[in-house]
Amino acid sequence: MVLNIVLIIVGVALVLWGADRMTDGAVAIAQRLNIPPIVIGLTIVAMGTSMPEFCVSLVSALKGTADLAIGNVVGSNIMNVLLIVGITAMVSPMVISKSTVKKDIPWAVVAALLLGYFCFDNLLSRFEALVLFVLFLAFICYTLWSAKKGKVTENEEVKKKHTPLMAIGLVLLGLVCLILGSNIFVDAATKVAASLGVSEAVIGLTIVAGGTSLPELATSVVAARKGQSAIAIGNVIGSNVFNILMIVGITGLICPLKMPNITIIDLSLMVLSIILLWFFTYTKYKVERWEGAFLFIILIGYMWWLIASAV
């Protein structure tokens, strides 16, 4: 138990350090290539920070623990909004571009609605997984096309302080630390939870989801504190879309998923959380501190309900 607690601390430290390196590198790449930071957040950073979820969900599905695989994605998406946006906004109010609110967040809303609908019968077929994966390809194409056509614009200024090679190196180093740190955290935390007799679904929705969301949390908080709101919110939205369309899509194509212990409450909160974020930002393009606190309070209530139900 003591060793696992030490490993949890080591994992968190690696994730935080890796997030700092990745943010610096991603911003430098965006500035050097004249790519809007929001696009970097929606693609490179989001994909990189979604790798822990992908690895956990794929391995879980192949081992026949679909509850853990889907619980990881559903829980991670809930935490992305309620925990990450909540805490990040409390640290520093998040300014969000009009294009993100009008074009990018709707992708996350549609993805959540589709996953909730497909999983309503506690079964995700290969055809439904294919639909999700095709939408993932469409999202990537749309994001890159919008950037190329100049439809995504940001006003944030970034100083050139890294060479291209250094920037790429920072992103790769950050990714390695994020994934390694997350894996250490998840392994240790899962052992602690399992020793307490907690079910796979609850482990996936809480411990594993929290652990695999650490990269998004660390990256978003660090980015927001450095004034890179586009990276912060783009990372969250992009990660939510990647988690559902890419991770569940690929995992479901490889192995149809049965998840008897994922409840309608879990799926509903995943959908409602992203809709609530959209509502907060639709007119003023900003998440205030009190709104971040409100999101975080909802998460606390959900965690309490999960723990109470598991007892």
Q: What are the defining features of this structure?
A:
311 residues; mainly alpha; two-stranded antiparallel sheet
Please work out how many helical segments DSSP would assign.
Answer: 11
Q: Low-confidence segments, ≥5 residues, pLDDT <50?
A: 152-158
N-to-C SSE series?
HHHEHEHHHHHEHEH
How are the strands of the biggest sheet laid out side by side?
1-4
Structural class: mainly alpha
Give structural notes:
- The protein has 311 residues and is mostly helical.
- It has 11 helices and 4 strands, in the order αααβαβαααααβαβα.
- A two-stranded antiparallel sheet has the order 1-4.
- The radius of gyration is 18 Å and the shape is globular.
- Mean pLDDT is 81; it is low at 152-158.
Q: Could you write a compact summary of the structure shown?
A:
By secondary structure, the chain is an all-alpha fold. 80% of the residues lie in helices and 3% in strands. The two termini are 21 Å apart.
SSE map:
Blueprint: H1 2-32, H2 37-62, H3 66-91, E1 94-95, H4 98-118, E2 123-124, H5 126-148, H6 164-195, H7 200-212, H8 214-225, H9 229-254, E3 257-258, H10 264-281, E4 286-287, H11 289-310
Antiparallel strand pairs: 1-4, 2-3
